[in-house]
């Protein structure tokens, strides 16, 4: 994070050997100019505070999504209205997610709105899973907290760290996993596979559903993604990054934890079946 003052053309191109004497008027003008204020640096505490705020908004949205979907499921003759709630929230979250990813600087307002939309999506989906498998949401939440806690403890103790080689492998596996997920969705929508989980439920490896194997892989990917999020905060603090990038860290952690929770939710549902 280079100091902006070092990019000043006059500072860089000042000719050697010139006189440093300045007039009284120039001295007064320099004195009256406001001093350069370096942005307040990023801290671990501030980044965690911002992360906590995003999760408060996320949970509030999840409660709304849970209640609305439960009400619609009780009063409606079909699941379409209830599905429309979290699908709509998912589309909003998807658009805002891309906006936040490609923005050059973090926007707290957009990140918090994203958290709310993401919460409605998570709450609605969780209600559906809970109706099909009572008690599954509590199990998934508990498992997610365990994975996040263990990952954070190992990272804080220095037992695990992000590395270039591990990150390269992570990206390759992530691309392959996303490609499989898209193919699986297409097969399900076209009716090529009639299992509710697609290939995840219809294919087995040594008697174990493919969805369980992929679910465990997704949990490992999510855990390493958390390591990358924690590493981002650590490097930002070490390099004196501006405090506003704590919002970027909060956004990344929230996306990873939500993805991890949804993967665990699906993993438990497939394993129960």
Report on the structure:
The chain is mainly α and 273 residues long. The chain has one domain (44-272). Helices cover 74% and strands 1% of the residues. A two-stranded antiparallel sheet has the order 1-2. The model is unreliable at 1-20 (pLDDT under 50).
Strand and helix layout:
Blueprint lengths: L8 H4 L11 H9 L11 H32 L4 H23 L5 H25 L3 H21 L7 H27 L8 H4 L1 E2 L2 E2 H29 L7 H27 L1
Antiparallel strand pairs: 1-2
Helix pairs in contact: 3-4, 3-5, 3-10, 4-5, 5-10, 6-9, 6-10, 7-9, 9-10
Task: Briefly characterize the structure.
By secondary structure, the protein is an all-alpha fold. It contains ten helices and two strands, in the order ααααααααββαα. The protein has a two-stranded antiparallel ribbon.
């Amino acid at each position: 994070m280079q100091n902006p003052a070092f990019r000043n053309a006059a500072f860089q191109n000042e000719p050697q050997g010139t006189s440093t004497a300045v007039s009284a008027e120039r001295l007064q003008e320099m004195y009256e100019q406001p001093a350069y204020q370096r942005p307040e640096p990023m801290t671990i505490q501030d980044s965690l505070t911002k992360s906590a705020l995003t999760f408060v908004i996320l949970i509030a949205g999840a409660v709304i999504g849970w209640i609305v979907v439960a009400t619609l499921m009780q009063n409606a003759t079909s699941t379409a209205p209830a599905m429309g709630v979290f699908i709509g929230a998912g589309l909003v979250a998807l658009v805002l997610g891309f906006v936040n990813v490609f923005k050059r600087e973090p926007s707290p307002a957009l990140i918090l709105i994203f958290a709310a939309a993401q919460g409605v999506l998570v709450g609605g989906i969780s209600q559906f899973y809970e109706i099909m498998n009572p008690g599954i949401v509590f199990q998934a939440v508990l498992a997610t907290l365990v994975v996040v806690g263990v990952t954070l403890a190992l990272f804080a103790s220095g037992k695990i760290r992000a590395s270039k080689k591990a990150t390269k492998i992570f990206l390759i596996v992530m691309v392959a996993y996303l490609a499989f997920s898209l193919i699986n969705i297409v097969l399900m929508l076209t009716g090529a596979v009639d299992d509710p989980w697609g290939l995840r439920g219809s294919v087995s490896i040594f008697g174990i559903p493919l969805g369980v194997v992929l679910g465990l892989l997704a949990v490992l990917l999510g855990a390493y993604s958390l390591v990358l999020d924690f590493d981002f905060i650590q490097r930002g603090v070490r390099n004196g990054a501006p405090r506003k990038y704590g919002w970027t860290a909060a956004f990344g952690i929230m996306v990873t934890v939500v993805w991890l929770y949804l993967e665990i939710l699906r993993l438990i549902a497939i394993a129960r079946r």
